[in-house]
C-alpha cells in the first residue's frame, strides 16, 4: 500500500515485516516478502537487506507511477489496469532496472499458440529498407529480420534492440548460431558469414572450395540450419554444382562436406530448405521447382556422421508417391512429432509421413470432412511451417492451420483410428488478411507466429487471443 509521510518517518522495528521506499519523491510501504518475491538478484531484494534501524525510507530515483505498476505486479503476478498508461517498452525497461524482468515477461508473454485462435497483434518494421528478405525467430519470441544488407534485432517484447550492417548486398538466408551470433548467406555474395550482435562485427566466414576442381568458386548459400554443435549450409556454384557443409559452431570452421551433386536435374538441385531433427539425428533437405510440365523436386534425409542418404523420394518419377503427377509444391518437417508433410501441387491436398517408418510410399493424405473447407484445386504459391505440433499452410495469401484432433481446444477429443482423420483444418486469417499479399515465409518463435509477404513491408506477428490464466492488459 502507499502511505503518507507521517507513516514512513518512523524507524523500522526488528519485528516489523515492512519496508519503506521513496521512489522519485513518492512514498510507498510494502512488505519484505513482496519486494523479495522478485528474486534474490533483484534490486528491491538487495535494498531490503539494509540495516533495520535506519529510520529513513530507501530512496530510488525512478518514475514513481511506473514503480506503482511494478509493485502491483510483485503482489499479484499480474499487471493492473493502470499499466495501460505506459508503453510496453517503458514498463519493460523499468522492470529490467529493478531486476524483475522475468516476472514482467511472464505477465505479458502471449498464451500458448493455438492456430485456430491466432490473429495479427502487431507488424514490426525495420527503420530502413522495410521489405524483409528473410527472418528467423527464437524460442523466447524474439526475431531477427534481414532487410537489404542489414539485420534488425527485435527482442521478446518486440522492441527494436539493435541493427547491424553486413558487407552483403542482400541476405537471403539466416540462422541463429548462438544467442548473439547470426549465420547469414546471400544469393549475390559467396560464402557463409557470421555476425555478432554484441559488437556488430563479422566474426568469421566459411567458403566452399575444392583445390582439385577449379569450377568450385563463388559458391553461395541457399539454406542454413543448426544442431546443438553444428551449422549446416547448402552451397551452390554458378554452374549448379552443390553440396552441404557442416560447420563446427564453436570454432566456426568446416567440419565435413557431404551431399555433393551436379544440380543439372531436378533430383540434384541445391536444397532450398534444411531442417535438423535431433531425436533421430538426421538432416532433412528439400528442393522444389516449377516448370511447364508441373512441379518436380525431392526430399532427402542425410546422416551427417556418414554423409550418406538414409531415405529419399523424388517427385515425379521415384515411385514413392501414390499419386503420380500430383507432385509436392512445398515440404514441412514437424521436428517434435517426427513427421514429414507435403502439399500436393495438383489437388492441393496435404499428406503426412511418419519419419520413423519411411518406406517406398509412406504418405497418408489428410481428409477434409468439412464440405465448406474442401481444398481448392491446384497450388501456385505455397508455404508449410510446422510449429508446436501444428501445421501452418500458406496458400497464396490465405493462412490455414491443421491441428491434431486430440489437441484441439474446441474439437473432438481423442485420437482417430484412421490416420487420415488425425488432423482438422481451419482457416486462421480473415479475408482482409489474405488480400494483403502472397505469404512468403512462416516461422514460429515462443508463442508467436511470424509471417512475411511478397512486396509487403514488415513482419506480421500472430498470437492466440484466448486467455492462458495470465491476462495481459497491454
From TrEMBL:
<dbReference type="InterPro" id="IPR011333">
    <property type="entry name" value="SKP1/BTB/POZ_sf"/>
</dbReference>
<dbReference type="Pfam" id="PF02214">
    <property type="entry name" value="BTB_2"/>
</dbReference>
<feature type="domain" description="At2g24240-like C-terminal beta-propeller">
    <location>
        <begin position="134"/>
        <end position="463"/>
    </location>
</feature>
<dbReference type="InterPro" id="IPR011047">
    <property type="entry name" value="Quinoprotein_ADH-like_sf"/>
</dbReference>
<comment type="pathway">
    <text>Protein modification; protein ubiquitination.</text>
</comment>
<dbReference type="InterPro" id="IPR003131">
    <property type="entry name" value="T1-type_BTB"/>
</dbReference>
<protein>
    <submittedName>
        <fullName>BTB/POZ domain-containing protein</fullName>
    </submittedName>
</protein>
<dbReference type="Pfam" id="PF25279">
    <property type="entry name" value="Beta_prop_At2g24240"/>
</dbReference>
<dbReference type="InterPro" id="IPR045068">
    <property type="entry name" value="BACURD1-3"/>
</dbReference>
<dbReference type="GO" id="GO:0051260">
    <property type="term" value="P:protein homooligomerization"/>
</dbReference>
<dbReference type="InterPro" id="IPR057441">
    <property type="entry name" value="Beta_prop_At2g24240"/>
</dbReference>
<feature type="domain" description="Potassium channel tetramerisation-type BTB">
    <location>
        <begin position="19"/>
        <end position="103"/>
    </location>
</feature>
